[in-house]
């Protein structure tokens, strides 16, 4: 593992969870995905701390988390202004703090420190930007959940 390198040694502790999709209109986006064979996975959610409303969708492709900003939130504005839809990949990790530190040591920037997330029943999540500008969400696995 080299500092600044986009290559991070894999420890086997990362498990793909979803792709994050930004939109201004949640229902219009989920309707389009339903046309591709996707269906809602669980109820919609609102996470005021992160400034998003969302809906997980599952289908023939990878799980998608469709997100729209809550009133007054600018959380997704960077991507929405640029017309970028798919803006992050998410992975479940056994030890969130260790994974954040590992990626930071390899040159990633912590965009959002570990915080509890409504979408994951209070499990913690963190966002890091890799040196290649790929935004990664790390989700604390059920086993790694700390009090």
Textual characterization of the structure:
The structure is a single chain. By secondary structure, the chain is of the alpha+beta class. The chain has one domain: Roll (2,3-Dihydroxybiphenyl 1,2-Dioxygenase, domain 1), CATH 3.10.180.10. Helix content is 17%, strand content 40%. The protein contains 3 helices and 8 strands; from the N terminus they run βαβββαβαβββ. It is globular and about 40 Å long.
Give a nutshell description of this structure.
By secondary structure, this protein is α+β, with helices and mostly antiparallel strands. The chain has helices spanning 26-34, 77-82, 96-105, and strands at 14-22, 39-47, 52-58, 64-69, 86-93, 109-116, 124-129, 135-140. Mean pLDDT is 90; it is low at 1-10.
Question: What labels would you give this structure?
Answer:
alpha+beta; 8-stranded mixed beta sheet; 3 helices; 8 strands; disordered N terminus
| SSE run | EHEEEHEHEEE
What's the CATH first level? Alpha Beta
Give the spatial strand order of the biggest sheet.
2-3-4-1-5-8-7-6
Per DSSP, the total helix count is 3
* Rg from Cα: 15 Å
- CATH architecture descriptor: Roll
- CATH superfamily heading: 2,3-Dihydroxybiphenyl 1,2-Dioxygenase, domain 1
**CATH fold assignment:** 2,3-Dihydroxybiphenyl 1,2-Dioxygenase, domain 1
Low-confidence stretches: 1-10
Number of strands: 8
């Amino acid at each position: 593992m080299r500092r600044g390198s986009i290559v991070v040694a894999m420890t086997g502790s990362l498990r793909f969870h979803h792709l994050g999709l930004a939109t201004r209109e949640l229902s219009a986006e989920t309707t389009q995905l339903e046309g591709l064979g996707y269906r809602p996975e669980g109820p919609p959610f609102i996470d005021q701390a992160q400034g998003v409303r969302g809906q997980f969708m599952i289908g023939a492709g990878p799980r998608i988390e469709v997100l729209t900003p809550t009133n007054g939130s600018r959380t997704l504005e960077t991507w929405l202004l640029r017309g970028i839809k798919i803006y992050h990949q998410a992975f479940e990790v056994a030890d969130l703090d260790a994974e954040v530190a590992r990626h930071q040591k390899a040159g990633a920037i912590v965009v959002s420190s570990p915080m509890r997330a409504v979408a994951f029943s209070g499990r913690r999540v963190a966002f890091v930007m890799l040196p290649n500008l790929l935004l990664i969400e790390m989700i604390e696995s059920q086993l790694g959940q700390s009090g």
